[in-house]
Amino acid sequence: MYCIFFACTGTSDPYVKFKIAGKEIFRSKTIHKNLNPVWDEKVSLLVESLREPLYVKVFDYDFGLQDDFMGSAYLHLESLEHQRTLDVTLDLKDPHYPNHDLGSLELAVTLIPKEGDFRESLRLSDVHRKAQLWRGIVSIRLIEARHLQPMDANGLSDPYVKFRMGDQKYRSKTIPKTLNPQWREQFDFHLYDEQGGFIDITIWDKDVGKKDDFMGRCQVDLSVLSKECTHRLDLPLEEGEGTLVLLVTLTASAAVSIADLSVNILDDPHERKEILHRYSLLRSFHNIKDVGLVQVKVIRAEGLMAADVTGKSDPFCVVELSNDRLQTHTVYKNLNPEWNKVFTFNVKDIHSVLEVTVYDEDRDRSADFLGKVAIPLLNIQNGERKAYALKSKELTGPTKGVIFLEIDVIYNVVKAGMRTLIPIEQKYIEDEPRVSKQLLLQNFNRVRRCIMLLINVGCYINSCFEWESPQRSICAFLLFVLVVWNFELYMVPLVLLMLLAWNYILIALGKDTRHGDVVSSDSERKGFMNKLYAIQDVCISVQNALDEVASCGERIKNTFNWTVPFLSWLSIVALCAATLAVYFIPLRYIVLAWGVNKFTKKLRDPYSIDNNELLDFLSRVPSDVQVVGNTYALLIKSFHLINC
């Protein structure tokens, strides 16, 4: 084995890919708007054999589109001298047009025979590069766009915006049928480069059933923007029409850090005192966005899953809080790794969930998932070292292994309460949603449980009207009369307050019923046919529910559209009577009369059928499907009469 050290100083928005034996082993950073780029990057690569040449390809980066090929070349490693740095110039060519000169790429290459622990130190440094800390935060507020290019046949568009800065991405919501959309969305990117960076922005027209149309692009150069100041940017679109309006603010880095277990700020009495003072009640209105601080000690893991063919794994740990993401180093060939790292995050929302995920590092492909835990910040017991059982990606069931964590959360209660009333921060790195039969079944069962709860409450109230239990009905009737007669508006929040207090008392007495509402994952253990029948039942139920909701809305619309004139006249009479009654009679008396009628109806006529007059009226109004069917039947009948 040999190790190659090289530095690129070579010759749009170019970047370079390096491949050996068809596998991509390195990709350089992108140099924006430069035909003579200088990368000045250094990287160390492991080479199994010198017989395989190093294939170098240069591309022009186009955000949102396919990158343009700018040339390629081969570096034959067998021709290099060992232990000596050589300046190599590669002439870039296009294999399809070998006579065209596409420029050159300059490399400084050093070939060194592999030493014992080189592989481990190399991969360790690569992990630290991936786990680097950001030096600032770019806060972006997408305001609006003006005079966009019409893309649809109606002369309008359905625009949305894509943002990208390195690996960080964000997509706005779609504003339908407009050339002057207003988004009013806010999000943050992490700034890793002290010199700034570039934000690539593209605007697209949403098209259902086909590829979205490109509407234009623009770019923000952060290096020219001053920090700790909000900049309004009116950006003209390239390759399109119109202007995009943004507000961009560059701020200093939040309180994020990685340290060894021996370097712990909360163990230092002076540091801890300062942090407690920073988040004390006396400073509740100072820097409202800085809600608190969370410190995570990642101690070790035990009994992890073996991901490699050797029966071992190369585990590392990723700690995430909202859009903040840090990771440990990799412990190689170990199922019981010890990391002993301390992560410190700034808390912007006390309702955030701390996610700790363990992966197995693979040099030639993406990391393998080993397990995950999710811990709401409000559920954390400060200073408690605890073993958390690792779960699956969806957190629906356990996987192999446990991880030992010690977490401390310090926050300001007033700030946390105020931040609760503003929109939650949207994650800009998320997995694409996929269709899942199991998830569909699970969500249907959740909705059905909520509906069944409402139905059970309705049945209980109806049983009071039916006098199934005379004692319960008498108590309900007296309570109804008392509440309606003495009702005041302040009683609404008072009742909700009493409900919260009642449930709190039950929990304090050990009568906690919340665990009965947890969704189980028993469907995973069902057979294939049972799952198939369950999905079929879900589809039929959803189909019927959608039909009921659509029919109800269409019947209300058709009542006011005079689809059936008799029913529309009848509704006019009923609405006139209701208007006069509400105008001349206090609402309290009307509700009291309605309740007395409902409670005494069964006593006056034991054999009466319970009904709802409003629903009975709507059931006579045809839905749109019935209107079309009746019209079609009428046309058929007329056609037969004409033929006769």
Which features would summarize this protein structure in a list?
alpha+beta; five-stranded antiparallel sheet; 11 helices; C2_domain_sf; calcium; transmembrane helix; transmembrane; calcium ion binding
Global outline? globular
**Main beta sheet strand tally, sense and closure:** 5 strands, antiparallel
Number of strands: 25
**Strand composition percent:** 25-35%
> How helix-rich are the residues, as a percent range?
25-40%
Low-confidence stretches: 5-11, 116-132, 519-524
State Rg.
Answer: 34 Å
Average pLDDT, all residues: 82
Structural class: alpha+beta
Your description of this structure?
With 644 residues, the chain is an alpha+beta fold. The chain has eleven helices and 25 strands. It has helices at residues 118-130, 269-278, 413-419, 437-466, 470-486, 491-508, 528-560, 565-584, 587-604, 613-620, 624-643, and strands at residues 2-8, 14-20, 23-27, 41-47, 54-60, 68-75, 85-91, 104-113, 136-146, 159-165, 168-171, 182-191, 198-205, 213-221, 230-236, 243-252, 257-260, 292-302, 315-321, 324-327, 338-347, 353-360, 368-376, 384-391, 398-411. The strands form six sheets. Strands 17-21-18-25-24 form a five-stranded antiparallel β-sheet, covered by helices on one side. Strands 4-1-8-7 form a four-stranded antiparallel β-sheet, with no helix packed on it. β24 and β25 form a beta hairpin. The longest helix has 33 residues, at 528-560. The chain is globular, with a radius of gyration of 34 Å. Mean pLDDT is 82; it is low at 5-11, 116-132 and 519-524.
